[in-house]
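Q: Sequence in, structure out?
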Amino acid sequence: MQVVEKILGIIFPVFIIIAIGYAYARVRGEGVKSDMSAVNRVSMDVLCPLLVFTALAAKDFDVAHNISLIAAGVVIALGSGLLAWPVARMLGYDVRSFVPPMMYNNCGNMGLPLAVLAFGAAGLSSAVALFMACNLVYFSIGIKIIERGRTNKHTSPWTFLRSPMMLSMIAGMVFAAIGIALPAPLFHAMKMLGDACIPIMLFALGVRMMDVNLKSWRIGLVGAIVCPIAGLAIAWLLDGVLTMSTAQRGQMYLFASLPPAVFCFMVAEQYQQEPDKVAAIVLIGNLAALVFVPVGLWMGLPRV
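A: Exactly. Output:
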């Protein structure tokens, strides 16, 4: 019973903030998207990179200690894509629309806040390590899948390294590996800005939900099921192979249970890769998280 209460205490604040963002968007109407564009730009260019950097550069982050967790994140992301590929072929879905969202779960907007609520502030650095692993897989292999068969959309496999998020990850890993310590006032100022990103990401996720619809509900429902089930199955296999602490094990299962990321819809829109179908995968997947995230927490949290 205590485990159930803890799980509910973890997921409810997250979905309440998302619901507030959605309600705000519904009340304000279409104009809210232009209002939020500047907020999202600041969040993605400044706040989120600072969140990532301070989590990795913190004194309690040990690169070697998190290697197993990073490896787990890479394997779960790649494995989910491999498992989703035959499902897409069997059901006649375009692989470019279905597989990438299975590889890139909502480890940013939803995963980071959930990790903080489930494992405390100390769990943020491990969640960021998983976030980094997922980004590496999606922005290299995932984008290449989307570009398959296109003649006018080809980017360098290293382009993603120039984004503020990836630059902050690289800088944070360097600081952590070398043991560089920033002056305390500077570090705390950066951390305060970074921490502001968590509720903003959840609120923005709620606003973004106004853009998606249920026209393609069948592929959305399949994606909502395949993404977390594939992730949890791979996590269960890795649980018997990798050596991890209790907290890391919980982080891995939480990560594996997350739904497809909202960012996948934005990429599909950019590439005009059936954005309506990807939107349905994202929307129904995030609704299904009310079922699968508790399952992941139940599998990962120690019984008390």
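The first helix runs from residue 2 to 28.
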